[in-house]
Amino acid sequence: MKKILLPTDFSENSWNAIKYALQLFKNKTCKFYLLNTYTPVIYHVEYVLVEPSQFDMGDTVRENSVTQLNNFKTKIEKEFNNSKHTIETIAAFNNLISEIKDLVKEKAIDYVVMGTKGATGIKEVLFGSNTVHVFKNVKCPILAIPDGFTFETPHEVLFPTDYQIDYKDYHIKPILDIISPHSTRVNVLHATYGYDLSEEQEKNKKTLEKYFEKSAHLFQSVSNQTVEQGISSFQLKTPINLLVMINNKHSFFQNLFFKDTIKHIGFHLNIPFLVIPSKTNKT
User: Fold this and answer.
1) I need a labelling partner for 139 at 20 to 30 A (CA). Which of 133, 169, 175, 205 fits?
2) Signal peptide: which range, if any (predicted)?
3) Closest CA to 164 of 32, 253, 257, 265
4) Where in the chain is the domain with CATH 3.40.50.620?
5) What pLDDT is stored for residue 231 in this prediction?
6) What fold is seen in the domain 156-246+254-262?
């Protein structure tokens, strides 16, 4: 059974990500955890030191969270009536990142699925700061769904890599689990600047070939292009339904997402994006 965490702030953006998850995993037995985190509008030391029940405002915020979670649960069960799926709601007095990290460990979560836009809805920032913090801090596969993206079966997956990773099951299994019910081709893309692959890179590439041997796959390389340019030019030739990257701190992923400030990311995506950590809580 897959365990999938669905953080929500009850926005249309988060509902869109929830719908994507329910459709993507419709043929798998899953337990979905519908999560909302809250803090009172006025949050100060006295609130923590004294019984929260003495502050009606805190109770009101919690009740609102619980009510909206139940409304979302009812909406899911009505629109996506699936006997393979069970849903549990969690209203947590915590900040979002800490709660996600705790639940990933406590519940052995397989995927976190969330929208890419924060509640502020700033159009220039495709990846909301919450999403980027989750990429950076949570050791679990994260599936980020762009605002307004309508579900498409992931027939074409793009997997850029620099072959600098010693690939293990926990890197590749999240990809295989997603593509296994579908006729999917994995396009492995390597951006090169004219240098031959090192011995280690060649070894890692062969490891990848073994992992994908039972799936349709294609190894490609682009010359003298940045990773962003390679992804963009590939999308022009082949419509991609899912982008996958491994978040390895020594790889181009870190340069792509964290070279600028957290709030200003120049890399824009209009397709779902699966981010797999280089290490998990179990490694």
Assistant:
1) 205
2) none
3) 253
4) 2-145, 156-246+254-262
5) 83
6) Rossmann fold (3.40.50)
Q: What is the DSSP letter of 138?
A: -
Q: Which of 152, 176, 190 is nearest to 19 (CA)?
A: 152
Rounded distance, CA 92 to CA 65, Å?
9
CA atoms within 13 A on the CB side of 49: 3
Label residue 252 by pLDDT band (50, 70, 90).
low
Phi, psi of 158 (to 5 degrees): -110, 125
The radius of gyration of the chain from alpha carbons, rounded to an integer in Å, stands at 20
CB 272 within 8 A of CB 243: yes
Partners of 188 in the beta sheet? 159, 219
Quick: pLDDT tens for 59-99: 788 899 999 999 999 999 999 999 999 999 999 998 899 99
Query: Token digits for 38?
Result: 């809250």
In tens, the pLDDT along 233-243 reads 888 888 999 99
Residue 43 Cα to chain centre, angstroms: 29
Token output for 203: 């070894």
